[in-house]
Amino acid sequence: MKKLTTFLQPPIRKNVFWPPFLLILAAVGTSLINADFFESSMEGINNFILDHFSLLFSYSSFAMVITCALVGFSPLGKVRIGGKTAKPKFNRISWFSIVLCTTVAVGILFWGSAEPLFHYLYPPSFTSNPSGSEAAAQFSMGAIFLHWGLTPYAIYAIPSLGIALAIYNTKLTFSLSSPLAPLIGKKHRPVLAALIDMICLFALVAGMSASLGAGILSISGGLSDQWPHLNRTFLLPVVTLVIICTFILSAASGIERGIKNLSQLNFFFFVLFSIFILCIGPTSAMVDAAYWGIKSYLKEVLPLSLQWGDVRNSDWSQSWSVFNWANWMAWAPITALFLGKIAYGRTVREFLLFNWLLPAAFCLCWMSIFGGSTLHYAAQDTTLFKNLLETIGPESIIYQVFGEIGFTNLLRPAFVTAMFISYVTAADSSTEAMASLSMKKFSLERFDSDTNLKVIWGTLVGLLAWIMITFTGIDGIKMLSNLGGLPALLLLSGITISLNFLMWNPTKYLHR
């Protein structure tokens, strides 16, 4: 009780901590009272945003890709984050492991198989590709390369780099508004700081809760498939409790111990798992998928990114590309706080290599392996895969692929383990960032944020996730988190412009 009483006093930023905390509780309360109304309201607002701001989402995302490339070749690329004498806190393997596992979470585990199948079975009308055709398969790989490659990692890299330079080189406060200093100046920034931090914190808490809920259902489903005698009513709270305790303990143990070690374990698990599938699965189909994916990506990147011709306002573009950009952007600001914080001691070019190019390359390899396998088996029995997608859902596809490959009793438990580690790794870094943002006087020298805040945010996220999967469903709160995509779009656009300001004259704004 004494620790809780101490926590409730400063140094928390009350205007950043309490509004999202209370708004999330209000949203869950509304969802409990009338889940259908809540979900339909969130869906309506989401559709309005996607309908009216789709071009802005698309153009801004593409501008971030171009900015990343320009920064790498500009004088800013030589600048060392933290100054000329700054020394990195992590070796390159540890750093890359943390970056990758913080950003991919459980997304690539499911969408690596499910997304290309969607595009294969339901190709967009503007392509004129027949469902289940070879042309549809080639387009599907290009589309997934777009949605999981350079563009989403540019959405993460731009704010992360802006924050790293602002807090370490310009010596500004640890806030999401700090990278905007070249654009709006230092005098006006405090007015926006609390509002920006509060909105982004709200979006991440909602997003983490929905993501954890989906993760709990997926892990529980995998365990139930492997051991059918397990009681689902008992299984859900147990899985929830284990995940919450694990990521809170990892986050509380600090970045240099818990998060680093768990990320390295997760990364090596990803590598071993993908190599194993590559060796025992349809290897030639995976290689073909990579080839056609690159070829299709190069052909389609401009039309799909900039919504040229019939792509503009198409249902496919709204449902996939624009929705993905909004979702990535909603998560990007808080994630960027963490990625920017751990970039100390690296040059800007190193930062772009490890936060933009290498993670994108890893995801494309992963998508080639799992997407190629899925399309190979779907071509042999299209009806089976279509029925699975429509009757059970996208989470069933990867398990069917395992059944086709063989070694099901080995692959399913390994996949469930990968899901567990992946979510915990992403959640503890997000919890660290949320706690850092909530602190009134966060010290970069101390590096780790307040443990009490990590426990409170982690417990809240876990409790909300359990309530949703038990009583209301996760769709409404997931769409609520996506609402953060619109303010995040404005924030990220501002940071992109700021980076373009200082790109060619870094000494004007930064202490090198």
TrEMBL record:
GO molecular function, one term: transmembrane transporter activity
Membrane topology summary: Multi-pass membrane protein
Alphabetized UniProt keyword annotations: Cell membrane, Membrane, Transmembrane, Transmembrane helix, Transport
Keyword Calcium assigned: no
Presence of keyword rRNA-binding: no
Compartmental location: Cell membrane
Predominant place of localization: membrane
Protein name per its UniProtKB record: Choline-glycine betaine transporter
